[in-house]
Amino acid sequence: MNQAYLTTQKMKSMNPPPKVLVIILNWNQKYDTIGCLNSLKKIDYPNYHIIVIDNNSSDDSVNAILQAHPTIRVYKQQDNYGCAGGRNIGLKYADHQADYILFLDNDTKVSPKFLTYLIETAEQDLNIGVVSSMILYWDDPSIAWTSGGSIDKNGIVTALYYNEPTSNIPNALYKVDWVPGCVLLAKKSVFEEISDFNENYFIYFEDVDWCLKAKQAGYHVVVDPRSVVYHKASQSLGGETSLGKLYYMTRNRLLFVSQYYRGIKAFRSISLILVEEFLNIVDQLRMKNFLQSLIKIKAIFHFFVGKKGALSEQNDKLKHL
Question: What is the three-state SS of 162-218?
């Protein structure tokens, strides 16, 4: 995209600047959430407020968050509704006066101008419906966690610039097929037009699915690399290599393809994924990672029997397989 950015001066001249509702999900991660809120206090954007949706934490998260940030509204739920369900609950609490909604993962730290840049980009073109940041690893900010993603003709989903040096990321605004829910800003009107997040996914791919719907509605999905966010990555399920992440990523990539393709195209796409996953399972077995192999087999089996939403073991992070 060769569109000029709005200048910061022009943004300051907007009276008032667009109002942003920041929605953060929490599940047994009170210290991460408090740290995220601490970093938000340092941003330079003047017109935003925050709500926290607590997915039935058992670690006294609500009290801890309110003690550290007494002006923040925290809504404790009676169950763990995952990322998809938690985000949908957040949308129900959205202020009718909000112009934009920003979903931000609680295991992030934001740079001071990250929101100013996102709003500048979103405001420059009515066709821009979704904007995200350059997302870097918390413990090594020279490496990108991801900066948007692509979906190929077979429905295979790829995270762009995953684990690549930041020098590989374009230094200008660029279009993508999807952005992670870790940092997802959209006009409130886009959320009202598209639909809620699909709760069949529970966690992972609900953001890909939602962005694809936004694109199908005619909106651009873009990344503004000036906006920088630091991410610990997959903390709610125990990290990038956790069994929980392996399960949901494996099952949900199959679920995603089955949602959008039919007939021969679906057969081809699912077959490609199964071949890739079979090779992954073989590699895990060679390395004697038997639990990782088992969880992938379980995820594939659950896809074929129609298992959707949360896995019953979710609350103990799949320790009992």
Answer: CCCEHHHCCCCCEEECECCCCEEEEEHHHHHHHCCCCCCCCCCCHHHHHHHHHHHCC
Domains in the chain, please, with CATH?
8-233 (3.90.550.60), 243-316 (no CATH)
Predicted confidence at residue 235, as pLDDT, reads 53
Q: Is residue 209 scored above 90 in pLDDT?
A: yes
pLDDT digits (tens, 9 = 90+) for 129-144: 999 999 999 999 999 9
In sequence order, the 6+-apart residues with CB closer than 8 A to the CB of 312 are none
Residue 65 burial (10 A CB sphere; 0-12, 13-18, 19+): buried
Rg (CA), the chain: 19
Cβ–Cβ under 8 Å, residues 221 and 178: yes
pLDDT more than 90, % of the chain: 86
Tell me if 149 sits within 8 A of 180, measured CB to CB: yes
- Give the C-alpha separation, 127 to 122, whole Å: 9
Secondary structure (3-state) at 279? helix
Which pLDDT does position 95 carry in this prediction? 77
What is the DSSP track for 109-152?
EE-TTHHHHHHHHHHT-TTEEEEEEEEEESS-TTBEEES-EEE-
Cβ(147)–Cβ(169) below 8 Å: yes
pLDDT of residue 321: 41
What CA–CA distance (Å, rounded) separates 270 from 253?
Answer: 9
User: Do 169 and 55 form a contact (C-beta atoms < 8 A)?
Assistant: no
